[in-house]
Amino acid sequence: MEKIVYGRQCDRFFRITNAEGKMWLLPLRNIRMAMELYQPSGYRGKILKCLLPLLSYVQFLSRYCHAELTEASIEDSLLKVFQRVFANKKIEYSIFFGSPGPRQKITIQIYNENTILGYAKISDNLDVVSSFYQEMSFLQFLSEKGIKNIPSILFCEKLDDYFVFIQTTCKTIHSTVFHKITPFHIDFAKEIYEKTKTKIPFVETGLYNDLRYLESILDNIATNDREILRNGINSIVTYYRGDVEFGAIHGDFTPWNSYFESGELFTFDYEYGAMGYPAYMDIIHFELQIDILVKNLTIEEAFVDLQNVGLKIPVRDIKPLVISYLLRVFSLYSRLFCGNFSPQDRSYKMWIGLIDKYNKS
Prior knowledge:
The protein has two domains: 2-168, Phosphorylase Kinase, domain 1 (2-Layer Sandwich); 183-360, Aminoglycoside 3'-phosphotransferase, Chain: A, domain 2, CATH 3.90.1200. Helices cover 42% and strands 21% of the residues. It contains 13 helices and 13 strands. The strands form three sheets. The chain has an eight-stranded antiparallel beta sheet with strand order 3-1-2-4-5-6-8-7, sandwiched between helices. Strands 9-10-13 form a three-stranded antiparallel beta sheet. It has a two-stranded antiparallel ribbon with strand order 11-12. A hairpin with a 2-residue loop joins strand 7 and strand 8.
């Protein structure tokens, strides 16, 4: 995929890397707009975002922040697609090379002067390409159901030997991101559920399908973890027996997949959006992603955080909701890693530990 980015006539960029292996290319020109693509959650990353406009003037800061000057440009055929889609010849862009893993892809923020025009995802991985079409279908479904403040699809086609997926955005340089649950986040989870809910047998839901997949791979999981998962699965199958009223979920509702603009909450990146799940599952994901990736909490601390979340949402008992979420996300990641989700992964340890704690509570 490197040939997409490194062309003949090059501009000057900062190449930024972090400890997780993520990489960004941010152009020196109009860098404040370029930085809207860079949404760090960690303390060091937030400092870097504040210092970045100074880096070209103070060289030692570049070394401290793991930023180096380089030259790059996207290839002409891709640039022409952007110009045609947005009816604008003066296209600027910043580039994120994606989170390392089986679904890694390039994301490009496309803008002109002080206006963000949209975002493009690019990949030659057929599994990722399939997710582009699934996301497009899911966004169209949500739009038909009356869900507002979500992206519209502008382009999803093959270009040369890779696929390009372009969406709109309402994001501006003044948009803000909240790393805590607000009433707006809870209202979003309520709306997406209320407008998509349907009454169906539990055995026909997305959640049930996740549980069946987990059961199919239990023999590949360490004995102690296997029993924890089995107990969790049995408790959810028992709790949701018969017909249920389930709806849609965003699937990856986090601070970095949402923003506030003009007093409204906007969401994007519906790659893992799905039907057939209980209300407010997205809120559990939002809180737990912050607990694991930002706050670096222990299992016990995250358990307390989740119990407090239960006081903010209108559910009778948060326990089955949390266990359902944990089994869903464990199943999702196991599928992504083809059944080889590493027990050494921090998220694996947290999810198993929390399932065990809720099983025993």
